[in-house]
Design goal:
alpha+beta; Transferase(Phosphotransferase), domain 1; eight-stranded antiparallel beta sheet; three-stranded antiparallel beta sheet; about 45% helix; about 20% strand; globular
Length: about 290
């Protein structure tokens, strides 16, 4: 079924006060305190935040307001990275990008994609057509991003069965996202959360900023997301220390085996769409063979 952004956005509870506009998701189980949302930047100044390496500033906070009876909320401020960040910081022209993320996030959750449910969007006009915005979503309790999980994990701490289950959980979360018609714009270790509190690990996909919806996600777009995640695993020292080639191939193999039309061609598909990055990985035949056997 094709999602209708106008239906979701028209269902949002909108409140305007001065330069600030609030968009509140009526599906949130707690009664949202709009006065606190209006004062959100002041509240955030008193909270410890997490800086974004790309933006070079604090852009996310854990917020536990008294009115929310859940474990907490995550607040993310939109900010440019790189050269745009030095010029514009957190100032954006228009709010279409933020509203698009809101409806894709809500649609993903409604389609069974393991993700964080959007709670509210705060947009403030700062000068002329420029705005700054904060995205508020429900905290996923006891979950941490995959990079932090790998940083805290000793090398070879997880036996092979546990590694297979974790790879399967990550592949399942990505497959659900794609089957819902969503293509992630930046699927990296920071945008995959894992929760390892039971025998069966869970994985979640977050941050649908600049994501796209398609009626049917083609194999090329699926592989682009998977290769982006694999490149992220190679990039960070923590993941290179704890994740070997076999682990990386487990994710790919577990993903493709869910689809009968691709199940028996997973190695060929990886070679075709992975480019130089995955072809180099596949040059290590012993590891490749061992992954396929599993």
């Amino acid at each position: 079924m094709q999602p209708r952004p106008t239906e979701l956005l028209s269902a949002l509870e909108v409140q305007c006060q001065g330069r600030v506009t609030l968009y509140v998701n009526p599906k949130h189980p707690s009664e949202v305190d709009r006065d606190e949302l209006l004062r959100l930047p002041v509240i955030l100044r008193r909270l410890p935040g997490q800086s974004s390496r790309q933006a070079g500033r604090t852009t996310s906070w854990l917020w536990r307001p008294a009115w929310d009876d859940r474990p907490g909320l995550m607040v993310r401020q939109y900010a440019h990275g790189g050269a745009l960040g030095r010029l514009f910081g957190a100032a954006f022209l228009g709010r279409a990008r933020m509203l698009k993320e809101f409806w894709i996030s809500d649609y993903a959750a409604s389609r069974g994609v393991p993700t964080s449910v959007p709670v509210a969007l705060r947009v403030e006009r700062i000068a002329g057509p420029f705005i700054r915005a904060h995205f508020v979503s429900a905290l996923i309790p006891e979950a941490q991003d995959l990079l932090r999980f790998l940083e805290s994990a000793p090398a070879d701490a997880e036996p092979a069965p546990g590694r297979r289950r974790l790879a399967a959980a990550i592949a399942d979360a990505i497959a659900r996202m794609h089957d819902a018609g969503i293509v992630h714009a930046d699927l990296n270790l920071k945008n995959v959360l894992v929760r390892h509190t039971s025998e069966e690990p869970e994985a979640f996909i977050i941050d649908f900023d600049k994501a796209r919806w398609m009626a049917a996600v083609p194999l090329s777009k699926r592989m682009a997301n998977l290769v982006r995640l694999d490149r992220s695993m190679v990039k960070w020292a923590a993941s290179r220390r704890t994740v070997d080639l076999t682990d990386r191939l487990r994710v790919l193999h577990s993903y493709l085996r869910r689809y009968p039309q691709w199940r028996d061609q997973w190695a060929r598909i990886a070679r075709k769409y992975g480019g130089r990055h995955l072809r180099h990985s596949f040059s290590r035949e012993p590891d490749s063979d061992r992954a396929q056997e599993e």
